[in-house]
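Below is how a single chain appears once it has passed through the pipeline. First comes the sequence as given, then the structure the pipeline wrote out for it. We keep one example in the README because the format questions we get most often are answered faster by looking than by reading.
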Amino acid sequence: MSEVEVKPKAFHGQMIILDYLSQKWQEAFEKLSKKKENEIWVHELCECSLKREFRKRFPYAETSSPAIVIGDFLHRGFLSWLRESGFYEVEVELEKEFNGYVIKGRADAISDEEVLELKYMGGFRERRPLEHHVLQLRIYLWMADKYRGRLVYMTPDGFAEYPINDPISEMELVELFETQKAPRWEEWECSYCPYKNWCGEAVFHRETGGRRR
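Resulting structure:
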């Protein structure tokens, strides 16, 4: 029997980047189609509550920008290196029940001692870890029953690592569920959102600076 060449989904070979994007869109739609009503993803707890509604209809908006594509390939390379080191398990699926919800997430890397989360950005906005990244890692620490974490930033301007050794408490989680709002981070979130041109809240913040009468 001759060997059958197995190609990735949506791979046609004529325009490689379009093949990559098509595959990412398919994966996003498939993942969303399997999501249950009582299921919430970790990054959803760290972001604007309207974003998940837009994501259901236009998930490709979050996978199409050059910055996202570059970040994805950087992630793959760095996590491959971590896996080969033998000290980390990478892309670890985490799941935990809480107050009738199933919280799900995928930590970049976990060792016996710590949870590691990699972030790629176009540049440093400020010389400290970003608050939503810290929140995400603190939730992962709670889910993985770890007390040590590290945020690793990679940018064209340089690199930075920040220890995060404070798992989120269950009281804080209750507050997160009760205070889901749009936007969650009023000072900056709308400016970086891929749905900002279709979202009334983003338009309001752009036109008024977030000031309500």
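Strands lie at 39-41, 89-98, 101-110, 115-120, 149-155, 158-164.

See the next section for the split statistics.
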